[in-house]
Protein 1
Amino acid sequence: MTWGIAALEPYNTVVSLGATYGYRVQPWLEPEAGVFAGINPVRGYCESYGCFTFTSRFIWVPFGVRFILPLRQNRFEVSAGVGGVYENGGNTIGYNAFGGYFKSTVAVALDPKRHFWLGATPRVMIVNGTYARDRWFTLTGDIGFRF
């Protein structure tokens, strides 16, 4: 699950779901891509002309590279990633934008053969669209399977 907090509305929290796929080209290097979706991450907006409420959904598509440092007989690992992100504003007509992300991950193998993993990933996404300067912070609880 992902909890996102928008910088313009620092108290908005939303639960979302996502998936990421990565392929290890070296023991320390993994290109990856994913998709995350959040329902109603933006609250209503009020100004002198009145209030506007949004029924929004945001979809983020991050793509980039992750650098991995295996620890303790490859059963624990820490990593850092960086890349680009595509943001789609869902119900907001014409709201699509590109930006970047930074993340770090801590994970532990649950079995001796290191197939099942459990981890946590904080991620910062910075997207500058036509109508807004979005700053998202997400914290994910990760469950993984490796071949």
Protein 2
Amino acid sequence: MLTAGPTIKRQHSELRDPLDNVLSSSERTIYGMNLGTEVWVDPTKHNNVYAIADYTTSDGYLWSRLAYKEQLANRNWDGKFTPYLGIEGVAQGNHDVRSTQFGPFIEVVHVPSSLSIMLRGGWKRSTYQVGPEKTGPWFAIGFWRRL
């Protein structure tokens, strides 16, 4: 699947000294395009490989994710819940900030409603054009529902 569309971003920037005094600030509106793609493959009936990338021309920001998940139970889909165990990597950033994260996830699908909850976590490293890098654990909860 491919996607494209316009973007409008309102940007506010501040440069501060070590005492947190504002040295300069600016505001501007940036116009551009958003381009994206998604690809998924089911190597078998019980696992999935998923890749997504999204690029915004207005600030040169790229967000991407590659994931693999394995269905652990309910392979005939006659039960109410279907659990998955997976692993993912996310890379994102532009000239101001870059971030990579890697870790496992657990997903449980409620079959009758097509509602899914995903618990994700792992390790993340972020680097910045100005300032020290930050490295440490991360955790997220996601929900989705097939329409």
Protein 3
Amino acid sequence: MTAPDAFRDQPVLHGSTVRLEPLTVAVLEDYLHGLHDPEVQRLTGTHAVFEPDGIEEWLRTRVDHHDRADWAVVRSQDGAFLGEAVINDFDPANGSANYRVWLAGPQSLGHGYGTETTDLIIRYAFDQVRLHRLALQVHEHNPRARRVYEKCGFTVEGRLREALLWQGRRYDSLLMSMLGTDPRPSM
């Protein structure tokens, strides 16, 4: 069994091209910009409308939630905000949780930032928190993300048929997971 407050002391995770820092109000403007990015909304299937005051309060309270981990993904080279990575839906009794990530803007794509972010999350989840299972969902119209997840060791385990309605078209969502006992690809 994993400790119920496993995310109490959320660390900064360092990679060669990205750094994952605990999410705070310091990234408010960039975070809002990313949430309103049409491509982020499309790829994540987000229909929600985000209000600045609500997001500011959300960012202020992240440090108080020990049943999840929320990070700002920043570029190591210059500290530029790239997006968000989250471990949530934590089930300590079963040692499982969910993973989600979004990166915004053309500066975030095609540089391996998503792959490195996902690898950092996997190592943290399995090696430090000692989770048994990490799961995620990816919409079928986001093949780039699916390739990243597969490259990092996630396996497709199911399909939610027509789970997303986006601009009049229905898309399937793929369920993917990785176990702490699964082999990890060398990155």
Protein 4
Amino acid sequence: MSFEARIRKASETSKSRIVLALDPEDPDREKLMQRSINILEKASEYICALKINRQLVLSLGLRNGVDSIVQLAHELSIPTIMDAKLNDVGHTNEFMARSYMDTGFDAIIASPVVGWEGGMDSVFKLATARGKALIMLTYMSNPGAEIFYSMKSARHGEAPRAVFELFTELAAEWKAHGLIVGATKPEIIRRVRELAGPRMAIYSPGIGPQGGDPKRAIEAGADYLIVGRAIYGAADPADAAKRIRELTG
């Protein structure tokens, strides 16, 4: 079953569009591992996927660390996303992607800024061979993102347009499996949806502390909401996830 089919199935089962961004911190490795497992278990009923960023990988390691969390997610029928933001030359991107895939991740987030040849080409080839998904970073959720992502750029012979629009176009050409667009910018979500069409999934981070509104993001065209601190930082992660799920209808 493809990643897209798995996350749709998980979403239908949990009646949720929430991707849990599991990014807690603790200097004690064992406490961090147990806390991460507890949060995932408690929130699992109300989420449709799990996303892990590099801070948890650096704290726990891939082997005998994050791989255990990925395995637990799969046992709970929850697909997993590695937020690697791959953004290097091809052979380095390929090495990192292979390491994450070997750990069990079903999808990887990458940046299109490095282009295709010698950048993303090897990663897409690997993902296709492994049956994994690649999600392209299109517009981040932090306030400072606007400076770069809204800059005008153009390929040779074409009219200039916003960088995020070019990234959306490239993701479609490369047959990516989804797009990251910050929930803090509903108008950008709406524009990306217009450009990408109805079939490309949009994942929107920035819900809660960064000011993103779940309902507005969904109404603008987001398919899934990436939620971290609003859930794992809550006294009751399950209740927090449930309340956010209810906001999305």
